[in-house]
Amino acid sequence: MADRLLQVARVAGAFGVRGEIRITTFTEDPLALAAYRVLTREDGSPGLTITTARAVKGAVIARATGIDTRDQAEALRGLKLFIAREALPAPDDDEFYHADLLGLILETPEGELMGKVKTIQDFGAGDLIEVQPPMGASWWLPFTRETVPEVRLAEGKLIAVRPAEIDGDADEG
């Protein structure tokens, strides 16, 4: 079975005139990208082999094998870069890679199916799980210990508590 690939970066374009590449990273430590060195395309084919990298605000400036000119670097703009999930370090206790949670089933503590994890986003106030119920529109659940007290990766599920619904003020028009 092929390794599951995770997107870790995207080429933003050229940097300077000597073939350096500006790369937007999706890793906690932007320079972790350099440690992986060989990055693939989504289909698993070779993408970039990073030879040197330095962090700048919001990105990494890198040199890569075979990229020597600004035009070559600019031609890579938009290239999505991936690594095998197995290449990532094991997360600490009570930490999870979002990719490991996607597709998991959400159940109440009583065993009632709530749906599946569709996506996980952070819009600035912490992680939110987009729950896709068996029928109907998706909804958002904060990914906190209070609302998701148990993560059972081996069982492929999260135990979740649906927050109380907040109704609007009946007196408002």
UniProtKB/TrEMBL annotation:
GO cellular component: cytoplasm; ribosome
Domain (RimM N-terminal): residue spans on this chain: 7-86
Superkingdom, taxonomy of origin: Bacteria
Keywords for this protein: Chaperone, Cytoplasm, Ribosome biogenesis, rRNA processing
Gene Ontology biological process terms, A to Z: ribosomal small subunit biogenesis; rRNA processing
Sequence intervals crossing the membrane: none
Ribosome maturation factor RimM PRC barrel domain segment(s): 99-165
Compartment(s) where it occurs, according to its Swiss-Prot or TrEMBL record: Cytoplasm
Keyword presence, rRNA processing: yes
InterPro entries noted in UniProt: PRC_barrel-like_sf, PRC_RimM, RimM, RimM_N, RimM_N_sf, Transl_B-barrel_sf
GO molecular function, one term: ribosome binding
Main localization (coarse): cytoplasm
Domain notes: The PRC barrel domain binds ribosomal protein uS19.
The protein's role, per its UniProt record: An accessory protein needed during the final step in the assembly of 30S ribosomal subunit, possibly for assembly of the head region. Essential for efficient processing of 16S rRNA. May be needed both before and after RbfA during the maturation of 16S rRNA. It has affinity for free ribosomal 30S subunits but not for 70S ribosomes.
Homology family: Belongs to the RimM family.
Quaternary state and interactors: Binds ribosomal protein uS19.
NCBIfam families: 16S_RimM (TIGR02273)
Name used for this protein in its record: Ribosome maturation factor RimM
